[in-house]
Amino acid sequence: MPTLRPRERLIIALDVPEPDDARRLVRDIGDAAEFYKVGLELVMRGGLALVREFADQGLKIFLDMKLLDIGNTVEKATRNAAQSGATFLTIHAHDGKTIRAAAAGAAGSDLKVLGVTVLTSLDGTDLAEQGIGKSPEEMVVARAGLAKTHGIQGVIASGLEARAVRAATGAGFLIVTPGIRFPDDAAGDQARVMTPDKAIAAGADYLVVGRPITEAAAPREAAQRFVAAIASARA
User: Does 1 reside within a domain?
Assistant: First the structure.
């Protein structure tokens, strides 16, 4: 993987209700960032058109759809996502059929498919409620191995598991880490969080940050603070 500048490693989550809210944030942040996440909330309000709009402006877009369906549907949805101009697309890395279908849908395009391992809002108690006896780290590593085996480019994993994922998958396999907070940030609905410098040091390639930037009084300055922390960790 080419060497990434610190600014390229920050993905800002546009978890806002309206496309105009997203456009306003992107304008306010300006050249402090160039990679944005568009998720389900925004997609349901015309966000797919926004993906194309931002891609046409030269921005990178992480389309966070967390696909999980029969293989035929996942493959076709992934193929359509590839045509949107998105850089990343998420699926749930629960089984080989879903992962292989997404890999087939992205074949021949520049789209990179990332497998969601265990949501960073979940902890061991939540997994037990689902009937899963393994710890979050065990599940994350197992699903990361499944993702690599079946041909997608990386996973979504918390900073707490990044080091174990890197050890299991080796160099070149992407680790994209949400749940990133500074010590003075509220955790919100995240259960497994880590500071940006520690996540990068643990092996994360990209960090996804939402409310600590988008709800800040000065989003541009907040984004710059995270970029500076990434640069410090890389140094």
Answer: no
Q: Catalytic site residue 76?
A: no
Query: What is the C-alpha end-to-end distance of the chain, expressed in Å?
Result: 18
Per-residue model confidence as pLDDT tens digits over 161-179: 999 999 999 999 999 999 8
Give the pLDDT confidence of 181-193 residue by residue, as tens digits: 887 766 565 656 7
Indicate whether 47 belongs to any domain.
Answer: yes
**CATH for 109:** 3.20.20.70
In a domain? residue 168: yes
- Give the residue numbers spanning the domain of 83: 6-234
Q: Is this prediction's pTM over 0.70?
A: yes
Point out the catalytic residue in the list 37, 60, 66, 76.
Answer: 66
Tally of structural domains, the chain: 1
Q: Which among 30, 39, 25 is positioned nearest to 58, based on CA atoms?
A: 30
- Give pLDDT tens digits for 111-138: 999 999 998 888 899 999 999 999 999 9
- Tokens found for residue 123: 């902890």
